[in-house]
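Title: Prediction job returns without error message
Component: structure pipeline
Severity: low
Priority: P3
Assignee: unassigned

Description:
Job completed but the reporter wants confirmation the result is attached to the right record. Sequence as submitted:
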Amino acid sequence: MPKLEIVRSPDDTTGTGRKSESATEIRLGDRVKDLRRLHRWTLDNASERVGLSRSALSKIERGEASPTFDAMQKLAHGFGLDLVEFLSPADTTTPTGRRSITRVGEGTTYETPNYTIRLLMEDLKITAFVATEIVVSARSFSEYVEWDRHPSEDFIYVLQGRMILYTELYSPVTLNKGDAVYFDASMGHACVSIGQHEARALWITSTNKGEVCNDN
């Protein structure tokens, strides 16, 4: 995704191609800084806890670097949060029921170097998976500095456009609208849009590889 000044204003277009009327703005750098100060950690303390270098952490806080999905997972884990809690506004509350509706134009949206990501069902904090709508902005595999990887099982369903999924252990595969793929996300992977328009997809990530979470 582009530079992680992670801000999406209500006037920005969402991955649906429509104007967002209620999407939440989020600055990931500010979120990281607030969490670090809440824990009363120095940059060195936080670096050791989350598994990122002090320099990388500092650049993220200042909005000068865009963390990969893997880095976001490390940040969430280091602060004792799941990914949705980490990326959602701090005042989001956990419902007592097990239903969540995300309307068109809703959901916290942010950008990373190769994707635009919109969180779905973000009001639920304890779930077996994280669901997001993604727009693949990368147009070439060379745009990835390193493989994305995280300890989960992932499922992608293409909603619009065409994309190529690159993985460490398999040949690149082209996915068209209506195609779906499941893969072990601990294997390095990367997505690239091809065709006239950027690909848009539903991306589901399990919160615990091989395990199902519940509220008990």
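Comment from assignee: result matches the submitted record. Helices lie at 28-38, 43-50, 54-61, 69-78, 83-87.
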